[in-house]
Specification:
heterodimer; A: about 500 residues; alpha+beta; Beta Polymerase, domain 2; Cytochrome-c3 Hydrogenase, chain B; 2 domains; 4-stranded antiparallel beta sheet; 16 helices; about 40% helix; about 20% strand; B: about 270 residues; alpha/beta; Alpha-Beta Plaits; Rossmann fold; two-stranded antiparallel sheet; 7 helices; 11 strands; about 20% helix; about 15% strand; globular
Chain lengths: ~500, ~270
């Protein structure tokens, strides 16, 4: 997989390069830092050129002052703030120079990703109140509701700040990274083969997407060719993951629109999908199957999977039809949380979110990996950009997923499922998957000792959490829960 | 709207009879904790201890022991790597998932498992048929949350057992914690515990909450709940499946027996 081209750039050239890329119709994907040598910090920018084709990678030595590119490509703002927190590198003229990953109370004499930071030393943390900006002009009327990090129901931890007047939300600010586990640092210094178990546990409901992106990154660095049967089974696993995630999404969405039977049906279908996962792999989250070079063991889907999926598909299409015909449900979705195409692009929306705002992008088709070159998915796009469009994209994706699984089972070749993956010292690779929530990148650097030197994870929720607040400002409290559910966000992948 | 009522009625009863009556628990094919059979262990082999990502398996250093390995199921992330690395079947795959235990010690493998006394103490009877649970995510990967959310799907239907999730810690009897306890969640976790009225109890769900899991240590993470707040029931698993969580809740309420002793399931 030669899906990347590396170009060296000087700090002074970065802004021009980004401006030119965007003007031509390209897109910035992510930025991260790493230490190629103990004293030399280097920045990496990943971009999609307008012409399509391989990802462009810019590398830039961080010894000179680095300009912030957030004013050119706003989605880069969070990446730069993350680098500032974890590597101690500041960007000149950053429009939002605040902490992102580390909270205000966290202090360290050296940043946690500095080469001399011991792997087992905890950061010093003092819980402090976050300094929140004043909403201009209305100190007496605007109230602040800080909600979280421990919130009602069984949900992930995060703090949401609502500046509101009565029912109207004036401004919304999510405070994430309470769940920051330092997962990227846990990869450093271990053998590449041992990274798979870690990658499976970065985001539980994205176990396959994460492990697959990681495996593909290392395989790309090692010039390892995965056998055809393993490639098809990887598609099977990735689509089964999409299936249970999307089914969960509808159960939760119906919960927020108080469609009780719809909630029960969605959650029951999710449970049935997870039980199929267990029957096939022994894991409800499809874990412990992927390995560098293919799969750990062969899977035998036989005939039962196809017939079970046919039953599930019939039941889902009746369910989807009911949802699409229920006025009380649709009333709450249509025009809710509108995200226009321009905003979606600038702030880096990904997956079903961007496709619901009219951006036709899907890595499975645009940069095919595993066996997607042979069985391309039908990509669903909607223009409306509201909660309803986001749900409709996912309805179409459930159908497309089952169709892909059927095709994969039909075409499933015989043969081995594992090839030896001999890691090349001083190499690097980029791995990516279209996870249920959008584009997921793993950038892997292997050191001279053949061990992992740096693993950067860009999860889809990191992108979509950046976008989400723009659909909440100037809306109302009653729509908030529905809008949040329509995004289908996870926090674990974002916080890492 | 009547179409939904009809859809619901046509679906019929979807709830599993388990655990109230015999029937499927929905975990067919589930790969659980690896089973340790010391008799099959061969000298000079350290394959499983070598491959274990969380040091759940270590070579036993004390002399005079009958088995060669120390196996701590409280650290196991169920990755199955040891069962694949083991050349003799001494570490073998199993479907064992009912690993809820009142004492941390019960999760260490012991020769005399069956003979060990039942540990722990009975819970106040008043809570047996009505338990209110507050969940706190202290930095999990969302796998445990996914399974906790599944508890209220029609298949498991936790309500029927008289166990409810509640929004406020003030109304909660049991604090259910997932995740290895990240730096930023340490404060909110303690505050939540302090906000609960006594008597209050704690259930650690998932290997992260029990011992830290794959994210343990480092600059941002702790080592699970030990030393943070007192734990009444430990449930390792990565993640534990919904049936295992239900079993642990019933075990806590003395409505189900503890099945794990000395790191082995006993009847």
């Amino acid at each position: 997989m030669t899906a990347r081209r590396v170009t060296p750039l000087r700090a002074a050239e970065l802004k021009d390069a980004a401006t030119r890329l965007l003007a031509a119709g390209g897109r910035m994907q992510m930025a991260y830092a790493w230490y190629p040598e103990p004293q030399r910090l280097e920045l990496r920018y990943t971009a999609s050129p307008a012409s399509g084709g391989p990802f462009a990678i810019w590398r830039c030595d961080a010894s000179e002052p680095i300009p912030s590119l957030a004013t050119v490509s706003p989605l880069l703002s969070w990446y730069e703030r993350e680098i500032t927190d974890l590597f101690g590198l500041s960007f000149t003229d950053h429009p939002q120079p605040h902490h992102l990953v580390l909270h205000e109370g966290a202090t360290a004499a050296v940043p946690p990703f500095a080469p001399d930071y011991p792997p087992d030393r905890p950061l010093l943390v003092k819980r402090t109140q976050q300094a929140v900006p004043q909403v201009a002009g209305a100190e007496d009327d605007v109230q602040l509701l800080p909600f979280g990090p421990v919130r009602a129901d069984v949900v992930e931890s995060g703090e949401f700040m609502f500046f509101y007047v009565g029912e109207a939300i004036i401004h919304y600010h999510p405070r994430l990274f309470f769940k920051h586990r330092g997962m990227e640092k846990r990869f450093e210094g271990i053998e590449p083969s041992r990274g798979v178990v870690l990658a499976e546990r970065v985001s539980g409901v994205g176990s396959v997407a994460h492990a697959l992106a990681y495996c593909q990154a290392v395989e790309s660095a090692s010039n390892c060719i995965v056998p055809p049967r393993a490639k098809f089974l990887r598609v099977l696993l990735a689509e089964l993951e999409r299936l249970y995630n999307h089914l969960h999404y509808f159960g939760h969405l119906c919960h927020t629109t108080t469609l009780k039977v719809g909630e029960a049906e969605g959650k029951l279908l999710e449970e049935q999908a997870k039980q199929l996962n267990t029957r096939l792999t022994g894991s409800r989250f499809l874990r412990s199957v992927l390995a560098l070079g293919g799969l750990r063991r062969d899977l035998s889907p036989d005939n039962w999977l196809e017939s079970e999926l046919a039953t599930l598909r019939a039941r889902f299409s009746r369910y989807a039809e009911h949802m699409e015909n229920t006025a009380s449900h649709l009333d709450r979705l249509i025009t809710t949380g509108k995200l226009d195409r321009r905003l979606a692009f600038d702030q880096g929306a990904t997956g079903p979110i961007e496709r619901a705002s009219g951006i036709d992008r899907d890595l499975r088709r645009d940069h095919p990996y595993a066996a997607y070159a042979e069985i391309a998915p039908a990509v669903a796009v909607r223009e409306a950009g509201d909660a309803h469009a986001r749900a409709q994209v996912r309805i179409a994706e459930v159908d497309a997923s089952i169709a892909l699984i059927e095709r994969a089972l039909d075409l499933l070749p015989d043969g081995p499922v594992h090839a030896e993956c001999n890691v090349i010292p001083d190499s690097e690779g980029l791995g990516f998957t279209e996870s249920p929530r959008g584009t997921l990148f793993y950038a892997v650097h292997i050191g001279g000792d053949g061990r992992l030197a740096r693993v950067k994870i860009k999860s889809p929720s990191f992108s979509n959490w950046r976008v989400f607040p723009f659909t909440v400002h100037d809306t109302n409290m009653m729509d908030y829960g529905i809008n949040e559910a329509s995004f289908g966000l996870t926090i674990a992948g974002c916080d890492r | 709207m009547p179409q939904w009522t009809l859809l619901g009625l046509l679906a019929g009863k979807q709830t599993a009879p388990w655990p109230l009556a015999a029937g499927t628990d929905g975990q067919n094919g589930f790969l659980g904790m690896p089973r340790y059979k010391p008799a099959l262990c061969t000298d000079a082999c350290e394959a499983c201890a070598d491959i274990c990502p969380t040091k759940a398996i270590t070579m036993r250093t004390s002399s005079g022991a009958t088995s060669r390995l120390d196996v701590d199921y409280g650290r196991c992330v169920v990755c199955q790597l040891c069962t694949e690395a083991c050349p003799t079947g001494a570490m073998s795959p199993s479907s064992d998932w009912a690993f809820g235990a009142r004492a941390r010690d019960d999760l260490f493998w012991q020769d005399d498992a069956a003979a060990r006394p039942a540990s722990g103490r009975a819970t106040l009877r008043a809570f047996r048929r009505s338990l209110h649970v507050r969940h706190v995510d202290a930095g999990s990967c969302n796998g445990c949350e996914s399974e906790l959310q599944a508890l209220n799907n029609p298949f498991y239907n936790l309500h029927r057992l008289g166990i409810f999730f509640t929004a406020s810690p003030r109304f909660a009897d049991l604090l259910l914690v997932t995740g290895p306890v990240t730096n930023a969640m340490l404060g909110p976790l303690r505050t939540t515990y302090e906000a609960m009225a006594e008597p209050r109890w704690v259930l650690a769900v998932g290997t992260c909450a029990v011992s830290g899991g794959v994210a343990e240590g480092g600059y941002a993470c702790g080592h699970g709940l030990d030393g943070v707040i007192p734990v009444d029931v430990y449930l390792p698993g990565c993640p534990p499946n919904p049936a295992a969580i239900i079993h642990a809740l019933l075990l806590f309420l003395d409505r189900a027996p503890q099945r794990v002793k000395g790191g082995q399931l006993v009847e």
